[in-house]
Amino acid sequence: MIFQSVLFYLFSGVLLLAALGVVFFRNPVHSIMCLVLAFFQSAMLWMLIEAEFLAIVLVLVYVGAVMVLFLFVVMMLDVNLEIARRGLVRYAPLAAIIAVLMAAQLVQVIWLKGQESGLDGAFTPYPEGYNNTEALGAVLYTEYVYAFEIAAVVLLLAIVAAISLTMRKRPGLKVQNIAKQVAVRAKDRVRIVKMDAEKRS
Questions:
Q1: What is the separation, in whole angstroms, between the first and last Cα of the chain?
Q2: How do residues 142-190 score in pLDDT, each as one tens digit?
Q3: Cα–Cα distances in Å, from 42 out to 8, 9, 35, 74, 136?
Q4: Cβ–Cβ contacts within 10 Å for residue 132, how many?
Q5: Could you tell me the CA-to-CA distances from 32 to 27, 41, 95 in Å, in that order?
């Protein structure tokens, strides 16, 4: 139990540092890398509470797919760092208030759940034969199947929006007009010039 508590505080500390790096790093690519590290630390916390399925999904889906999409979007878009930094300073007080409120709500919910279940914060292993993936799948595809489908549609819209943002018109960008290329005729592009043969002296 003591070893698990040490791992919990270790992963949580790295998670907090990675989250601060996401916010305060000036380079967007560095922020993305910190977010990947934060997801990995969150997956380790899921593993500690024996939620293996959620940990694997967090790594495969968010780190393997969503974060790669974010990285491509950040690298393809023309991000003005000066404007981004001004916005960060402008909205920092509001962000701090929201962060404090969210932290207070999380602490309250965790404390109330602990009081209801009678737990003292210690790690309690699941009974033998319990399958986390089977239990989660049974709930996900019965009670929350519509929410699951809506989440899939939202992710699809995010992918389409990212692609549309990268394909927007920018000054100096050369694009192809496929319709004009297909409709081109040889006589419009090639000119045959007839000349009399010249005799060599």
A1: 104
A2: 888 898 899 889 988 987 887 777 666 666 667 777 888 888 877 777 7
A3: 10, 12, 10, 23, 18
A4: 16
A5: 9, 14, 19
